[in-house]
Amino acid sequence: MYKLVLTEPFLNRFKKISSRNNNLKQKIYKTLRRLIVDPYYPSLRSHKVQTRKHGIRWSSRITGDNRVIWDYLENKKLVIIILDIGGHSGKGRVYKNK
């Protein structure tokens, strides 16, 4: 089992995008719970991506368009740092343009 470290940018974006959408908030919680147990759980579709703010990191699916951006702390110890949350595309996207 992993421990999650939630960064300030993640918490700020989380509050902003989930404040009026309880359904999305519950899906984010479900995704985070799955990350704690198995970051490669099939429904998360975890894979490496080039992000806009954090370089090459891991991305896991929350919904069709929403992703959580994360990485391991020092050599895959049992800590996952949650860096950002946002869309796969559009104004709030977290992926870098190609």
Describe the structure concisely.
The protein has 98 residues and is α+β, with helices and mostly antiparallel strands.
Written account of the structure:
The chain has 98 residues and is α+β, with helices and mostly antiparallel strands. It has one domain: YaeB-like fold (2-Layer Sandwich), CATH 3.30.2310. It is built from two helices and five strands. A five-stranded mixed sheet has the order 1-5-4-3-2. It is globular and about 35 Å long. The termini are far apart.
CATH superfamily: RelE-like
Cα distance, first to last residue?
35 Å
Q: Return the structural class.
A: alpha+beta
CATH architecture verdict: 2-Layer Sandwich
Q: What is the average per-residue confidence, as pLDDT, rounded to a whole number?
A: 83
Question: What's the β-strand tally?
Answer: 5
Spans of at least 5 consecutive residues whose pLDDT stays below 50 are none
- The total number of structural domains is 1
SSE blueprint and pairings:
Blueprint: E1 3-6, H1 8-18, H2 22-37, E2 47-51, E3 55-61, E4 66-72, E5 79-87
Parallel strand pairs: 1-5
Antiparallel strand pairs: 2-3, 3-4, 4-5
List keywords for this structure.
98 residues; alpha+beta; YaeB-like fold; 5-stranded mixed beta sheet; 2 helices
